[in-house]
Amino acid sequence: MALPREIxxxxxxxxxxxxxxxxxxxxxxVQSILNPFLLFVLLVVLLSxxxxxxxxxxxxxxxALLTLIWLLRATGSLFAPFIxxxxxxxxxxxxxxxxxxxxxxxxLAVLLLVxxxxxxxxxxxxxxxxxxRDQVERFVANAPALVERGQxxxxxRDIPFLDERGLLAQIQNIRPxxxxxxxxxxxxxxARRAWSAVLGVGRGLxxxxxxxxxFFLTPILAFYLxxxxxxxxxxxxxxIPPAQRERAMRFLQGYDQLLAKYLRGQVLAAAIIGTLIGxxxxxxxxxxxxxxxxxxxxxxxxxxxxxxATLFPALLIALFSGAVVASLIKLALVIxxxxxxxxxxxxxxxxxxxxxxxxxxxxLSLAVGGYFFGFVGLLLAVPVAVLVKLLLTAALGxxxxxxLFLGGNAVRLDHAEPxxxxxxxx
Length: 426
Known about the structure:
Elements: H1 5-29, H2 36-46, H3 54-101, H4 106-156, H5 160-164, H6 167-172, H7 176-199, H8 205-227, H9 229-238, H10 242-284, H11 289-299, H12 305-319, H13 324-351, H14 359-400, H15 403-406, H16 420-424
């Protein structure tokens, strides 16, 4: 005989209170060995009687996301090769598909892509890193002379703006050897932080696995992910409940379109722009051309930020160089030509009309991801930012059709979803 609904509801309430009390006592007694992963498993077990309800799904989803964040924070260095391999596979997938359509076997097409790309990256690191290091060391060594030259130039000119605020006296009081000492200490700190960012927070065995992963595991993973890309997608799609599959696939298609514009568009455009600026300045004989090219390439992943980040140090170098006018002309010619190429050829052909993400949102996501999760955070920052943007767009679309927004006169649209234009709009 079935129990009345009131008794069953009361029993569930009592059960919930008992579970919370016993769980709190148990967790307090074993707090020294607890971690978020164990707590997540325990939460799943304790909430199993409430399976099927919306609250159960919401709690489990939130707990899973928090556990994933903790896992990336704690062991991010071990996941870095996997994430980097996925990024490579995602970026190269259209080219592999095009080769396959031309009757090239999928495995051979992937091999023809992965080997040259990874070889190019390795050669750039092997030959580019020493040259970049030499330019940085030369800049640090020449910094005192640049400061002295700048102080002499400022002393010969009447600049009311600097005199009124006492800035000129402060600049003249700077000792060149202090600048050299400061830059030397900062160079060592930046190198240490950059290496730590690549390796994450791992130590000992974790760091060893990370180094081995970058050199050996990433190419292998990229090959298999790219070769089986479509099969993996089909299997993941098959795990979505049939009732929600069409809606989920529509959302994922919008996500793919927006993310592809960035990873396959803006990143490639940034690499091309950085290469052009570095090569152009080197041909023109401008000092520290390679370092400025690297700055341009790195910061151009955020639209318009690369130009600002490159011009500021380049102008200082030109103004404090021996031939100011000639250096400024060289800089203006190279930057001007690259900007014309970017606006007329690179951006329209590679990036398209828009990456769909505001530069402020990109900067914030990259800064937060890099600060909290190091190199792994930088890799995941943009995909997560795209996902958050699409979720907010979908939530905003539902809100605009709700009675709260329309003042109680809304027409219920159960299947209302944001259009493709909304998904990819800025």
